[in-house]
Amino acid sequence: MRATLADPKILKSSIDAISNMIDEAGVIVSQEGMALRAMDPAHVALVDFKMEKEAFEEYEVNEMLTLGIDLDRLNTILKRAGSSDRIELATSEDGGALRITIRNSATRRFDLPLIDVGEEELRVPQLEFPAKVEIDPKILSEGIKDAEIVSDHVTLRCDSEYLYISARGDLGNVEVKVSKEQALSFEVTEPCKSMFSIEYLKDMIKAGDIASTVRINLGNDIPVKLDFLAPGVALSFLLAPRIESE
Questions:
Q1: Which pairs count as long-range contacts for 106-109, CB under 8 Å and 24+ apart, including other chains?
Q2: Which domain holds residue 183?
Q3: 229 dihedral zone (left: phi>0; alpha: psi -120 to 50; beta)
Q4: How far apart are CA 237 and CA 241, in angstroms?
Q5: What distance in Å separates the CA atoms of residue 12 and residue 50, rounded to the nearest whole number?
Q6: 246 in a domain, yes or no?
Q7: CA angle, corner 182, sides to 178 and 185, nearest 5?
Q8: 104 and 139 part of one domain
Q9: Using one digit for the tens of pLDDT, what is the confidence trace for 195-243?
Q10: Residue 164 shares a structural domain with residue 199
């Protein structure tokens, strides 16, 4: 396989968001593009990532492959690429490594050894979400940062008029309100509320760099689904809720 990216931002930001939660994963490379689906070791978050062949400048794949990747090490390598660099991905001659070539005024080559990963197929749970709100990722990012000032958990809540991002703690309370007029799209069939770990959400919102919008799919004490969409790329996260004790 061989794939070239003229703009490394989408791949860099996606792997940066994923690698803090997922240590290693099998990346499926097919003639349609690249895909990764994995769950974090604590089974709290699930990642579903697809990058279609149209997102690459050049893309050549003859047969489907599953590449076992150490995502943390891949992230470290990709961070060495600047915004104007070209990135080439290929399997090494012996098939035992992913070769990452960064080209600009110099050519730098990294061989990342492939690892054995489990072949378990993960399914994304089919959930009914009473609230689907699409907003600018910066709004969600700032709301999470505001909530972190007072707590390590944040509550996402929707009613017929607003999306609320709020937190309570010994250091005080925070509430961010986004009206349906401020949202890019707003579909709420019934009020709903769930609480989540800020630590996980902080990693997920790094994906805001690849997309101009994020769709928040919310229910009552069920996982939240965050969809970051860009041309040729879809990155979704499913995060289990923290059930409040009575």
A1: 108/80
A2: 131-216
A3: beta
A4: 13
A5: 14
A6: no
A7: 100
A8: no
A9: 999 999 999 999 999 998 999 999 999 999 999 988 899 999 999 998 7
A10: yes
